[in-house]
């Protein structure tokens, strides 16, 4: 009995129907929102409203692409190409619509992305995910696709095709701040990861060698991991403020209750549990025979650990790095709330001023960063440990 | 054992603080400066706690029903077509930062409780869905064959065999969702939802360390209690499963 055939009407793919329905709903919704200035209420415009006769052609082309997702016998590579083309098209047409709507030289009019844009984007993104999971491409191809997506994104943004969209207007108004906060965000995410590895690896080895410590160390790290982020970030501020003020030399060593330092420490604390518990699981998973063989070769305990055991735990450690990095890129947003900088400062500024485009300027790069690092590390993980490949 | 004892003491402390925050004022006063109030009184802490927990419970309950429903659907012959897509969406979707989901819910729903509930619900779906899939697709094939051999209908197999066996894994997904929801709801106060985050934010804005500490400790203890409670239920569920099979 083939489960893919049971109950399926011949020639129709149910996921394809879902993508088509989602996309058609998107075409019926306003594609962009136009405002003559930042204050007046927005006016929803469909693709034909925004692009004139060309809009009809674009809408027809998108409808055609969505309809082509329905037949089930379509070869999967064609589905992949279709989804990629649709995704690229939706993004480029949003930029073109903004360019057509904003009069030349006008710095006040605002064009933001509408519900229709997001629904179409979701429809093609789901179609892409479906095609990719069905194709089960070799890792080299998937690396190429990921790199291609990053380069394409950089090209589209760099060539100014999207510059008339209001998110990009917000970017243009604070270009220098944006890159400074981007650097800060990366520093928070990667710095805390580095610190967690530097402390977590020795700590994990110590607990492995002295199993009596296991319960206490993992218990404390589990408690830290459970504490809500705002509470932990908040408590770091007075704590380090107090340390900086009352411990001689602490302030000179860079410890401070304001700025990025409390956020960095909070992220570091959240990162310790995945590193330590994965290292322990990895070390426990080394077959006893391997250890005995190393001892038989005359290796000391330390040599066995450094030259045999640690290399064998590499896949598990890389999995920990994936968990920590994706988690920290997201959590670093909270730093914006406590004056620690990063993309979060745009998110919370935007929420305070009810300026949604500013919120997007902070949220979209964060999501992109988390997605790219998550996918890249998943691919790396498959590369070094083929057993992890998804069925 | 010491862990359980500490947790019990923390629960008693939390209850005492929520019922009578004023009696803790002498403890908190050293954390304030220039005669600032040591205890948050703009809104009653008890009502903030109820509103916070209510939001988390509502969102996680709704997410559990829908996520388990979807999980069952895509593992039946009818929805099998969606299984590869569902797996990808569940794993890629979880790389979306919860705070970003919260921020993006605001343009859709405006400020207040609505966007927070929506974000908690949406983000809560994925861990439960992923665990439901894992639970329902990793069942021992002999058990399913045995159930089939006993003449059970597909519905009976689902209710009496598959779901009970997958329950511990599903519950650990619900625990993950609840802990994340509790944390995200705290940040929800930045979009004007009534949660305990209000206390922490008020403390940060007025540099009143006492507010930050009391808000942080209340949310922290709540998170630990919820985590431990779910662990206990998971243990019991695993016990039933073993006893029945």
Automatic annotation (TrEMBL), chain A:
<keyword id="KW-1133">Transmembrane helix</keyword>
<feature type="transmembrane region" description="Helical">
    <location>
        <begin position="250"/>
        <end position="273"/>
    </location>
</feature>
<keyword id="KW-0812">Transmembrane</keyword>
<feature type="transmembrane region" description="Helical">
    <location>
        <begin position="331"/>
        <end position="351"/>
    </location>
</feature>
<feature type="transmembrane region" description="Helical">
    <location>
        <begin position="219"/>
        <end position="244"/>
    </location>
</feature>
<dbReference type="InterPro" id="IPR035906">
    <property type="entry name" value="MetI-like_sf"/>
</dbReference>
<dbReference type="InterPro" id="IPR051204">
    <property type="entry name" value="ABC_transp_perm/SBD"/>
</dbReference>
<dbReference type="GO" id="GO:0005886">
    <property type="term" value="C:plasma membrane"/>
</dbReference>
<protein>
    <submittedName>
        <fullName>Osmoprotectant transport system permease protein</fullName>
    </submittedName>
</protein>
<feature type="transmembrane region" description="Helical">
    <location>
        <begin position="305"/>
        <end position="325"/>
    </location>
</feature>
<feature type="transmembrane region" description="Helical">
    <location>
        <begin position="54"/>
        <end position="72"/>
    </location>
</feature>
<feature type="transmembrane region" description="Helical">
    <location>
        <begin position="186"/>
        <end position="207"/>
    </location>
</feature>
<feature type="transmembrane region" description="Helical">
    <location>
        <begin position="108"/>
        <end position="129"/>
    </location>
</feature>
<dbReference type="Pfam" id="PF00528">
    <property type="entry name" value="BPD_transp_1"/>
</dbReference>
<feature type="transmembrane region" description="Helical">
    <location>
        <begin position="79"/>
        <end position="102"/>
    </location>
</feature>
<dbReference type="InterPro" id="IPR000515">
    <property type="entry name" value="MetI-like"/>
</dbReference>
<feature type="transmembrane region" description="Helical">
    <location>
        <begin position="141"/>
        <end position="162"/>
    </location>
</feature>
<comment type="similarity">
    <text>Belongs to the binding-protein-dependent transport system permease family.</text>
</comment>
<keyword id="KW-0472">Membrane</keyword>
<feature type="domain" description="ABC transmembrane type-1">
    <location>
        <begin position="182"/>
        <end position="377"/>
    </location>
</feature>
<feature type="transmembrane region" description="Helical">
    <location>
        <begin position="358"/>
        <end position="381"/>
    </location>
</feature>
<dbReference type="GO" id="GO:0055085">
    <property type="term" value="P:transmembrane transport"/>
</dbReference>
TrEMBL record, chain B:
<dbReference type="InterPro" id="IPR051204">
    <property type="entry name" value="ABC_transp_perm/SBD"/>
</dbReference>
<feature type="transmembrane region" description="Helical">
    <location>
        <begin position="48"/>
        <end position="74"/>
    </location>
</feature>
<feature type="transmembrane region" description="Helical">
    <location>
        <begin position="95"/>
        <end position="123"/>
    </location>
</feature>
<dbReference type="Pfam" id="PF00528">
    <property type="entry name" value="BPD_transp_1"/>
</dbReference>
<feature type="domain" description="ABC transmembrane type-1">
    <location>
        <begin position="49"/>
        <end position="230"/>
    </location>
</feature>
<dbReference type="GO" id="GO:0031460">
    <property type="term" value="P:glycine betaine transport"/>
</dbReference>
<feature type="transmembrane region" description="Helical">
    <location>
        <begin position="199"/>
        <end position="226"/>
    </location>
</feature>
<keyword id="KW-0812">Transmembrane</keyword>
<keyword id="KW-0472">Membrane</keyword>
<dbReference type="GO" id="GO:0005886">
    <property type="term" value="C:plasma membrane"/>
</dbReference>
<keyword id="KW-0813">Transport</keyword>
<dbReference type="InterPro" id="IPR000515">
    <property type="entry name" value="MetI-like"/>
</dbReference>
<comment type="similarity">
    <text>Belongs to the binding-protein-dependent transport system permease family.</text>
</comment>
<keyword id="KW-1133">Transmembrane helix</keyword>
<dbReference type="InterPro" id="IPR035906">
    <property type="entry name" value="MetI-like_sf"/>
</dbReference>
<protein>
    <submittedName>
        <fullName>Osmoprotectant transport system permease protein</fullName>
    </submittedName>
</protein>
<dbReference type="GO" id="GO:0055085">
    <property type="term" value="P:transmembrane transport"/>
</dbReference>
């Amino acid at each position: 009995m083939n489960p893919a055939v049971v109950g399926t009407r011949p020639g129709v793919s149910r996921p394809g129907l879902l993508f088509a329905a989602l996309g058609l709903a998107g075409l019926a919704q306003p594609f962009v929102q136009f405002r003559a200035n930042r204050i007046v209420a927005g006016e929803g415009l469909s693709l034909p409203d925004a692009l004139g006769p060309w809009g009809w052609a674009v809408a027809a082309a998108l409808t055609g692409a969505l309809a082509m997702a329905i037949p089930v016998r379509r070869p999967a590579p064609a589905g992949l190409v279709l989804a990629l083309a649709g995704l690229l098209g939706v993004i480029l047409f949003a930029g073109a619509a903004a360019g057509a709507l904003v009069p030349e030289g006008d710095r006040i009019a605002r064009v933001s992305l509408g519900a229709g844009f997001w629904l179409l984007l979701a429809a093609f993104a789901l179609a892409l995910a479906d095609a990719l999971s069905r194709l089960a491409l070799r890792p080299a191809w998937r690396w190429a696709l990921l790199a291609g997506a990053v380069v394409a994104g950089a090209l589209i943004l760099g060539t100014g095709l999207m510059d008339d969209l209001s998110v990009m207007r917000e970017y243009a108004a604070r270009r220098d701040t944006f890159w400074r906060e981007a650097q800060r965000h990366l520093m928070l995410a990667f710095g805390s990861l580095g610190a967690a590895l530097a402390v977590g690896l020795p700590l994990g080895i110590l607990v492995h060698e002295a199993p009596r410590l296991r319960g206490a160390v993992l218990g404390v790290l589990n408690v830290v991991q459970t504490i809500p982020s705002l509470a932990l970030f908040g408590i770091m501020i007075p704590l380090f403020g107090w340390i900086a003020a009352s411990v001689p030399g602490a302030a000179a060593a860079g410890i401070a209750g304001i700025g990025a330092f409390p956020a960095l420490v909070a992220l570091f604390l959240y990162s310790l549990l995945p590193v330590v518990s994965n290292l322990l699981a990895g070390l426990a998973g080394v077959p006893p025979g391997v250890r005995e063989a190393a001892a038989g070769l005359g290796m000391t305990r330390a040599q066995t650990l450094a030259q045999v055991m640690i290399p064998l735990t590499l896949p598990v450690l890389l999995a920990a790095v994936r968990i920590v990095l994706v988690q920290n890129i997201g959590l670093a947003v909270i730093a914006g709330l406590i004056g620690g900088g990063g993309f979060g400062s745009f998110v919370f500024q935007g929420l305070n001023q009810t300026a949604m485009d500013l919120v997007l300027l902070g949220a979209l790069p964060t999501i992109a960063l988390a997605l790219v690092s998550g996918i890249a590390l998943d691919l790396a993980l498959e590369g070094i440990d083929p057993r992890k490949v998804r069925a | 054992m010491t862990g359980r004892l500490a947790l019990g003491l923390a629960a008693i402390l939390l209850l005492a603080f929520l019922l009578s925050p004023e009696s803790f004022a002498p403890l908190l006063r050293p954390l304030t400066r220039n005669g600032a109030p040591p205890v948050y009184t703009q809104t009653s802490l008890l009502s903030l706690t109820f509103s916070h927990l209510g939001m988390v419970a509502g969102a996680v309950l709704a997410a559990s029903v829908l996520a388990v429903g979807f999980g069952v659907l895509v593992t039946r012959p009818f929805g099998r077509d969606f299984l590869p897509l569902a797996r990808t969406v569940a794993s890629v979707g979880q790389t979306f930062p919860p705070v970003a989901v919260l921020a993006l819910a605001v343009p859709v729903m405006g400020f207040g409780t609505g966007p927070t509930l929506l974000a908690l619900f949406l983000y809560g779906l994925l861990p439960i869905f992923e665990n439901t899939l894992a639970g329902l697709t990793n069942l021992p094939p002999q058990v399913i064959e045995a159930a089939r051999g006993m003449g059970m209908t597909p519905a009976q197999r689902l209710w009496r065999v598959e779901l009970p066996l997958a329950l511990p894994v599903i519950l650990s997904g619900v625990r993950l969702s609840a802990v994340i929801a509790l944390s995200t709801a705290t940040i929800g106060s930045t979009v004007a939802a009534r949660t305990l985050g209000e206390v922490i934010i008020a403390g940060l804005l007025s540099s009143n360390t006492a507010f930050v500490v009391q808000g942080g400790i209340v949310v922290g203890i709540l998170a630990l209690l919820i985590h431990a409670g779910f662990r206990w239920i998971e243990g019991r569920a695993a016990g039933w499963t073993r006893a029945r099979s």
